[in-house]
Amino acid sequence: MKEPHMKAVIQTALGEPGRALALTDIAEHGELSPNDVLIDVALAPVHHGDLHLIRALSGIPAQPGHVRRGSEAVGTVRALGAEIAKKGELKAGSRVVGFPAVGAWAERVVVPAYCVIPIPDDLSDEVAAQLFINYVTARMIMRGLRKSVTQDALSKGAVLVTGASTVVGRLLLYFMLRDGIHPIGLARSEASAERVQSEISGVSVAATADADWRSRVASYADGRPIVGVADCVSGALVGDLVPLLADDCAIVTYGNLGGGPIGLDGFDVTDHQYVVRGVTFVRWFTEVPPDEQAADIAAAMKLARELPSLFTASNTFNLEAFQEAIAAVERPDRSGFVFLAPK
Ligand SMILES: NC(=O)c1ccc[n+]([C@@H]2O[C@H](COP(=O)([O-])OP(=O)(O)OC[C@H]3O[C@@H](n4cnc5c(N)ncnc54)[C@H](OP(=O)(O)O)[C@@H]3O)[C@@H](O)[C@H]2O)c1
Questions:
Q1: Within 6 Å (CB) of ligand 1, which residues are found?
Q2: Which parts of the sequence belong to the Enoyl reductase (ER) domain (predicted)?
Q3: For 71-88, what is each residue's pLDDT tens digit?
Q4: Distance between CA 311 and CA 100 in Å, rounded?
Q5: Of the candidates 67, 76, 55, the residue with the CA atom closest to the CA atom of residue 102
Q6: Domain ranges of the chain
Q7: Under CATH, which number does the domain 133-282 receive?
Q8: Which of 6, 233, 268, 316 places its Cα 20 to 30 Å from the Cα of 70?
Q9: How many whole angstroms from 112 Cα to the centroid of ligand 1?
Protein backbone atom coordinates (compact mmCIF):
# COMPACT_ATOMS: atom_id res chain seq x y z
CA MET A 1 0.00 0.00 0.00
CA LYS A 2 1.31 3.49 -0.89
CA GLU A 3 2.22 5.53 2.22
CA PRO A 4 0.26 8.78 2.70
CA HIS A 5 2.03 11.86 1.41
CA MET A 6 1.77 15.61 2.01
CA LYS A 7 3.13 18.76 0.40
CA ALA A 8 6.05 20.57 2.04
CA VAL A 9 8.60 23.20 1.04
CA ILE A 10 12.02 21.61 1.42
CA GLN A 11 15.55 22.91 0.99
CA THR A 12 18.05 20.86 -1.00
CA ALA A 13 20.95 23.30 -1.35
CA LEU A 14 22.37 26.49 0.14
CA GLY A 15 21.67 29.76 -1.60
CA GLU A 16 18.94 31.84 -3.15
CA PRO A 17 15.45 30.49 -2.39
CA GLY A 18 14.63 30.30 -6.13
CA ARG A 19 17.29 27.63 -6.53
CA ALA A 20 17.45 26.08 -3.10
CA LEU A 21 13.79 25.33 -2.40
CA ALA A 22 11.19 23.04 -3.92
CA LEU A 23 7.60 22.13 -3.12
CA THR A 24 7.72 18.37 -2.77
CA ASP A 25 5.47 15.45 -1.88
CA ILE A 26 6.99 13.87 1.21
CA ALA A 27 5.93 10.89 3.31
CA GLU A 28 3.53 11.67 6.16
CA HIS A 29 4.80 11.46 9.71
CA GLY A 30 4.97 8.04 11.25
CA GLU A 31 4.00 7.33 14.85
CA LEU A 32 4.30 10.40 17.08
CA SER A 33 6.86 10.51 19.90
CA PRO A 34 5.17 10.58 23.34
CA ASN A 35 5.45 14.36 23.78
CA ASP A 36 4.90 15.47 20.19
CA VAL A 37 1.86 17.14 18.65
CA LEU A 38 0.81 16.89 14.99
CA ILE A 39 -0.69 20.15 13.71
CA ASP A 40 -2.72 20.74 10.54
CA VAL A 41 -1.20 24.04 9.37
CA ALA A 42 -3.71 26.81 8.61
CA LEU A 43 -1.27 29.69 8.17
CA ALA A 44 2.53 29.94 8.38
CA PRO A 45 4.38 33.25 8.16
CA VAL A 46 7.37 33.84 5.90
CA HIS A 47 9.86 35.48 8.27
CA HIS A 48 12.97 37.32 7.14
CA GLY A 49 14.78 34.91 9.47
CA ASP A 50 13.56 32.01 7.29
CA LEU A 51 15.22 33.64 4.30
CA HIS A 52 18.46 34.20 6.23
CA LEU A 53 18.49 30.51 7.15
CA ILE A 54 17.93 29.45 3.56
CA ARG A 55 20.70 31.70 2.26
CA ALA A 56 23.27 31.43 4.96
CA LEU A 57 23.19 28.50 7.30
CA SER A 58 25.08 25.29 6.94
CA GLY A 59 23.66 21.90 7.82
CA ILE A 60 22.12 21.10 4.44
CA PRO A 61 22.85 17.47 3.61
CA ALA A 62 25.06 16.81 0.59
CA GLN A 63 22.37 14.52 -0.81
CA PRO A 64 19.07 16.30 -1.56
CA GLY A 65 17.24 15.78 1.66
CA HIS A 66 14.20 16.83 3.57
CA VAL A 67 15.32 20.03 5.28
CA ARG A 68 11.91 21.51 5.82
CA ARG A 69 11.45 25.24 6.02
CA GLY A 70 9.10 27.55 7.92
CA SER A 71 9.40 28.38 11.59
CA GLU A 72 6.01 29.27 13.07
CA ALA A 73 2.39 28.27 12.35
CA VAL A 74 -1.18 28.49 13.52
CA GLY A 75 -3.41 25.48 12.96
CA THR A 76 -5.42 22.76 14.64
CA VAL A 77 -4.22 19.73 16.57
CA ARG A 78 -4.63 16.60 14.47
CA ALA A 79 -3.02 14.05 16.80
CA LEU A 80 -1.18 13.85 20.12
CA GLY A 81 1.68 11.64 21.35
CA ALA A 82 0.77 9.20 24.14
CA GLU A 83 2.21 11.19 27.09
CA ILE A 84 0.79 14.55 26.11
CA ALA A 85 -2.59 12.97 25.36
CA LYS A 86 -2.65 11.56 28.93
CA LYS A 87 -2.16 15.02 30.42
CA GLY A 88 -5.40 16.21 28.80
CA GLU A 89 -4.19 19.80 28.31
CA LEU A 90 -4.50 19.63 24.51
CA LYS A 91 -7.17 17.92 22.45
CA ALA A 92 -7.55 17.00 18.80
CA GLY A 93 -9.21 19.97 17.07
CA SER A 94 -7.74 22.61 19.47
CA ARG A 95 -6.57 25.78 17.73
CA VAL A 96 -2.89 26.28 18.52
CA VAL A 97 0.32 28.00 17.52
CA GLY A 98 3.57 26.13 17.11
CA PHE A 99 6.25 28.45 18.47
CA PRO A 100 8.53 27.56 16.93
CA ALA A 101 7.24 25.05 14.38
CA VAL A 102 10.23 23.92 12.36
CA GLY A 103 9.01 22.82 8.93
CA ALA A 104 5.78 24.83 9.04
CA TRP A 105 5.69 25.50 5.27
CA ALA A 106 3.75 22.27 4.81
CA GLU A 107 0.31 20.78 5.17
CA ARG A 108 1.24 19.36 8.56
CA VAL A 109 4.01 19.82 11.09
CA VAL A 110 5.12 17.95 14.22
CA VAL A 111 5.96 20.18 17.19
CA PRO A 112 7.13 19.24 20.72
CA ALA A 113 4.31 19.86 23.18
CA TYR A 114 6.30 22.52 25.07
CA CYS A 115 6.24 24.61 21.88
CA VAL A 116 2.45 24.42 21.45
CA ILE A 117 0.35 27.38 22.65
CA PRO A 118 -3.47 27.18 22.68
CA ILE A 119 -4.98 30.24 21.01
CA PRO A 120 -8.19 31.98 22.12
CA ASP A 121 -10.93 32.47 19.49
CA ASP A 122 -10.63 36.25 19.53
CA LEU A 123 -7.11 36.21 18.03
CA SER A 124 -7.22 35.92 14.26
CA ASP A 125 -5.01 33.43 12.43
CA GLU A 126 -3.07 36.35 10.88
CA VAL A 127 -2.21 37.80 14.29
CA ALA A 128 -1.63 34.48 16.09
CA ALA A 129 0.68 33.12 13.38
CA GLN A 130 3.17 36.01 13.63
CA LEU A 131 2.76 36.95 17.28
CA PHE A 132 5.17 34.89 19.32
CA ILE A 133 8.49 34.94 17.45
CA ASN A 134 8.20 38.69 17.01
CA TYR A 135 7.01 39.46 20.54
CA VAL A 136 9.52 37.16 22.24
CA THR A 137 12.36 38.50 20.08
CA ALA A 138 11.48 42.05 21.12
CA ARG A 139 11.37 41.02 24.79
CA MET A 140 14.76 39.29 24.44
CA ILE A 141 16.21 42.44 22.88
CA MET A 142 14.92 44.49 25.82
CA ARG A 143 16.51 41.95 28.19
CA GLY A 144 19.77 42.14 26.20
CA LEU A 145 19.73 45.93 26.32
CA ARG A 146 19.21 45.92 30.08
CA LYS A 147 22.12 43.49 30.54
CA SER A 148 24.39 45.91 28.68
CA VAL A 149 23.21 49.38 29.77
CA THR A 150 22.47 50.46 33.33
CA GLN A 151 18.97 51.61 34.25
CA ASP A 152 20.39 55.05 35.07
CA ALA A 153 21.93 55.40 31.59
CA LEU A 154 18.74 54.12 29.94
CA SER A 155 16.58 56.62 31.79
CA LYS A 156 18.86 59.58 30.97
CA GLY A 157 19.81 58.56 27.42
CA ALA A 158 18.15 57.57 24.17
CA VAL A 159 18.06 54.27 22.26
CA LEU A 160 18.14 54.04 18.48
CA VAL A 161 15.95 51.38 16.83
CA THR A 162 16.94 50.58 13.23
CA GLY A 163 14.52 48.78 10.89
CA ALA A 164 11.85 50.81 12.69
CA SER A 165 9.11 49.71 10.30
CA THR A 166 9.56 45.99 11.03
CA VAL A 167 7.20 44.27 13.46
CA VAL A 168 10.04 43.73 15.94
CA GLY A 169 11.20 47.35 15.51
CA ARG A 170 7.72 48.72 16.17
CA LEU A 171 7.33 46.48 19.22
CA LEU A 172 10.63 47.82 20.58
CA LEU A 173 9.54 51.43 20.07
CA TYR A 174 6.29 50.62 21.86
CA PHE A 175 8.03 48.86 24.81
CA MET A 176 10.59 51.63 25.23
CA LEU A 177 7.99 54.42 25.28
CA ARG A 178 5.94 52.43 27.78
CA ASP A 179 9.01 51.74 29.98
CA GLY A 180 10.19 55.35 30.13
CA ILE A 181 13.09 54.92 27.68
CA HIS A 182 13.52 57.58 24.96
CA PRO A 183 13.47 55.68 21.62
CA ILE A 184 14.41 57.06 18.21
CA GLY A 185 13.35 55.01 15.21
CA LEU A 186 15.37 54.80 12.01
CA ALA A 187 13.48 53.51 8.93
CA ARG A 188 14.47 53.32 5.30
CA SER A 189 11.96 55.58 3.53
CA GLU A 190 10.16 58.74 4.63
CA ALA A 191 6.86 56.95 3.98
CA SER A 192 7.79 54.14 6.40
CA ALA A 193 8.97 56.63 9.02
CA GLU A 194 5.69 58.52 8.79
CA ARG A 195 3.66 55.31 8.95
CA VAL A 196 5.39 54.25 12.17
CA GLN A 197 4.98 57.71 13.72
CA SER A 198 1.28 57.73 12.97
CA GLU A 199 0.86 54.25 14.40
CA ILE A 200 2.80 54.68 17.67
CA SER A 201 1.92 58.01 19.14
CA GLY A 202 4.79 59.96 20.67
CA VAL A 203 7.58 58.21 18.78
CA SER A 204 10.09 60.00 16.50
CA VAL A 205 11.37 58.19 13.42
CA ALA A 206 14.00 59.41 10.94
CA ALA A 207 14.51 57.91 7.45
CA THR A 208 17.89 57.02 5.96
CA ALA A 209 16.52 58.17 2.58
CA ASP A 210 16.76 61.71 4.00
CA ALA A 211 20.32 62.93 3.24
CA ASP A 212 20.29 64.74 6.56
CA TRP A 213 19.14 61.75 8.65
CA ARG A 214 21.98 62.01 11.19
CA SER A 215 21.02 65.57 12.12
CA ARG A 216 17.41 64.44 12.34
CA VAL A 217 18.40 61.65 14.76
CA ALA A 218 20.50 64.08 16.81
CA SER A 219 17.59 66.50 17.04
CA TYR A 220 15.24 63.69 18.13
CA ALA A 221 17.77 62.77 20.85
CA ASP A 222 17.35 66.31 22.14
CA GLY A 223 20.71 66.39 23.93
CA ARG A 224 20.40 62.88 25.37
CA PRO A 225 23.39 60.56 24.79
CA ILE A 226 22.56 57.57 22.57
CA VAL A 227 23.37 54.75 24.95
CA GLY A 228 21.93 51.83 22.99
CA VAL A 229 21.10 50.64 19.50
CA ALA A 230 18.71 47.80 18.66
CA ASP A 231 19.81 46.83 15.17
CA CYS A 232 18.31 44.46 12.61
CA VAL A 233 19.83 46.08 9.49
CA SER A 234 23.56 45.45 10.06
CA GLY A 235 26.04 46.15 7.22
CA ALA A 236 27.31 49.64 6.50
CA LEU A 237 24.48 51.34 8.41
CA VAL A 238 25.95 50.36 11.79
CA GLY A 239 29.27 52.03 10.92
CA ASP A 240 27.36 55.11 9.76
CA LEU A 241 25.83 55.40 13.23
CA VAL A 242 29.19 55.78 15.01
CA PRO A 243 29.32 59.63 15.06
CA LEU A 244 25.95 59.60 16.86
CA LEU A 245 26.74 57.12 19.62
CA ALA A 246 27.88 57.77 23.18
CA ASP A 247 30.92 56.00 24.61
CA ASP A 248 30.01 52.61 26.14
CA CYS A 249 26.97 52.40 23.83
CA ALA A 250 25.48 48.89 23.60
CA ILE A 251 24.79 47.71 20.07
CA VAL A 252 22.25 44.91 20.31
CA THR A 253 22.22 43.11 16.99
CA TYR A 254 19.49 40.66 16.02
CA GLY A 255 19.06 40.77 12.24
CA ASN A 256 20.68 41.35 8.91
CA LEU A 257 18.16 43.07 6.62
CA GLY A 258 20.86 45.12 4.88
CA GLY A 259 23.14 42.12 4.34
CA GLY A 260 26.84 41.85 5.06
CA PRO A 261 28.82 41.88 8.29
CA ILE A 262 28.28 44.49 11.02
CA GLY A 263 30.12 47.49 9.57
CA LEU A 264 31.99 48.49 12.71
CA ASP A 265 35.66 49.43 12.65
CA GLY A 266 37.53 47.58 15.42
CA PHE A 267 39.25 50.82 16.38
CA ASP A 268 35.88 52.52 16.95
CA VAL A 269 34.73 49.65 19.14
CA THR A 270 37.92 49.84 21.20
CA ASP A 271 38.14 53.59 21.36
CA HIS A 272 34.51 54.09 22.39
CA GLN A 273 34.27 50.91 24.48
CA TYR A 274 31.14 49.78 22.63
CA VAL A 275 29.44 46.61 23.75
CA VAL A 276 28.17 44.41 20.93
CA ARG A 277 25.54 41.88 22.00
CA GLY A 278 23.75 39.37 19.79
CA VAL A 279 20.18 38.32 20.57
CA THR A 280 18.15 35.37 19.33
CA PHE A 281 14.63 34.45 20.40
CA VAL A 282 15.77 30.80 20.56
CA ARG A 283 17.53 31.51 23.89
CA TRP A 284 14.16 32.38 25.45
CA PHE A 285 13.53 28.65 25.86
CA THR A 286 16.74 28.09 27.85
CA GLU A 287 17.49 31.45 29.51
CA VAL A 288 14.12 32.76 30.63
CA PRO A 289 12.54 31.17 33.74
CA PRO A 290 9.14 29.45 33.22
CA ASP A 291 7.18 32.08 35.16
CA GLU A 292 8.62 34.85 32.97
CA GLN A 293 7.91 32.80 29.86
CA ALA A 294 4.28 32.41 30.89
CA ALA A 295 4.10 36.16 31.58
CA ASP A 296 5.55 36.90 28.10
CA ILE A 297 2.97 34.67 26.39
CA ALA A 298 0.07 36.24 28.32
CA ALA A 299 1.41 39.75 27.64
CA ALA A 300 1.81 39.00 23.92
CA MET A 301 -1.84 37.97 23.66
CA LYS A 302 -2.96 41.01 25.67
CA LEU A 303 -0.99 43.38 23.42
CA ALA A 304 -2.33 41.67 20.28
CA ARG A 305 -5.88 42.38 21.52
CA GLU A 306 -5.14 45.97 22.55
CA LEU A 307 -3.01 46.97 19.56
CA PRO A 308 -3.65 44.57 16.66
CA SER A 309 -2.28 47.19 14.23
CA LEU A 310 1.22 46.12 15.36
CA PHE A 311 0.58 42.72 13.78
CA THR A 312 -0.84 43.45 10.33
CA ALA A 313 -1.04 41.08 7.37
CA SER A 314 -0.38 41.85 3.71
CA ASN A 315 -0.72 38.79 1.44
CA THR A 316 -1.44 35.11 1.82
CA PHE A 317 -0.23 32.63 -0.81
CA ASN A 318 -0.89 28.93 -1.23
CA LEU A 319 2.06 26.53 -0.92
CA GLU A 320 2.43 26.26 -4.72
CA ALA A 321 3.11 30.02 -4.81
CA PHE A 322 5.81 29.97 -2.13
CA GLN A 323 8.31 31.74 -4.41
CA GLU A 324 5.85 34.61 -4.90
CA ALA A 325 5.44 34.78 -1.13
CA ILE A 326 9.22 35.10 -0.69
CA ALA A 327 9.36 37.86 -3.33
CA ALA A 328 6.53 39.67 -1.53
CA VAL A 329 8.45 39.56 1.76
CA GLU A 330 11.40 41.37 0.19
CA ARG A 331 9.34 44.02 -1.63
CA PRO A 332 10.07 47.55 -0.29
CA ASP A 333 7.31 49.47 1.48
CA ARG A 334 5.36 46.32 2.30
CA SER A 335 3.13 46.84 5.27
CA GLY A 336 2.15 43.63 7.02
CA PHE A 337 3.30 40.04 7.23
CA VAL A 338 3.24 37.54 4.34
CA PHE A 339 1.80 34.05 4.91
CA LEU A 340 1.56 30.64 3.32
CA ALA A 341 -1.76 28.82 3.62
CA PRO A 342 -1.59 25.15 2.64
CA LYS A 343 -5.37 24.79 2.06
N1 LIG B 1 17.30 37.28 16.26
C2 LIG B 1 16.08 36.78 16.26
O3 LIG B 1 15.74 35.88 17.03
C4 LIG B 1 15.06 37.35 15.30
C5 LIG B 1 13.72 37.00 15.39
C6 LIG B 1 12.81 37.62 14.54
C7 LIG B 1 13.24 38.52 13.58
N8 LIG B 1 14.58 38.78 13.50
C9 LIG B 1 15.10 39.71 12.51
O10 LIG B 1 14.44 40.95 12.66
C11 LIG B 1 14.42 41.61 11.43
C12 LIG B 1 13.03 42.12 11.18
O13 LIG B 1 12.16 41.04 11.12
P14 LIG B 1 10.60 41.24 11.06
O15 LIG B 1 10.02 39.91 10.89
O16 LIG B 1 10.19 42.13 12.18
O17 LIG B 1 10.52 42.04 9.69
P18 LIG B 1 9.23 42.55 8.93
O19 LIG B 1 8.20 42.98 9.87
O20 LIG B 1 8.91 41.55 7.90
O21 LIG B 1 9.88 43.86 8.29
C22 LIG B 1 9.90 44.10 6.97
C23 LIG B 1 10.35 45.53 6.76
O24 LIG B 1 11.74 45.65 6.97
C25 LIG B 1 12.17 46.79 6.27
N26 LIG B 1 13.45 46.54 5.60
C27 LIG B 1 13.74 45.61 4.71
N28 LIG B 1 15.02 45.71 4.32
C29 LIG B 1 15.52 46.77 4.99
C30 LIG B 1 16.77 47.41 5.00
N31 LIG B 1 17.78 46.97 4.24
N32 LIG B 1 16.93 48.46 5.80
C33 LIG B 1 15.93 48.91 6.56
N34 LIG B 1 14.69 48.35 6.59
C35 LIG B 1 14.51 47.30 5.81
C36 LIG B 1 11.14 47.04 5.19
O37 LIG B 1 10.48 48.23 5.51
P38 LIG B 1 10.41 49.45 4.46
O39 LIG B 1 10.28 48.85 3.11
O40 LIG B 1 9.21 50.15 4.96
O41 LIG B 1 11.67 50.18 4.66
C42 LIG B 1 10.18 45.88 5.33
O43 LIG B 1 8.84 46.21 5.07
C44 LIG B 1 14.93 40.61 10.39
O45 LIG B 1 16.29 40.86 10.12
C46 LIG B 1 14.80 39.29 11.10
O47 LIG B 1 15.69 38.32 10.64
C48 LIG B 1 15.49 38.23 14.33
A1: 47-49, 52, 133-134, 137, 163, 165-168, 187-189, 192, 232-233, 254-258, 279-281, 332-334
A2: 18-340
A3: 999 999 999 999 999 999
A4: 17
A5: 67
A6: 5-119+312-341, 133-282
A7: 3.40.50.720
A8: 233
A9: 27
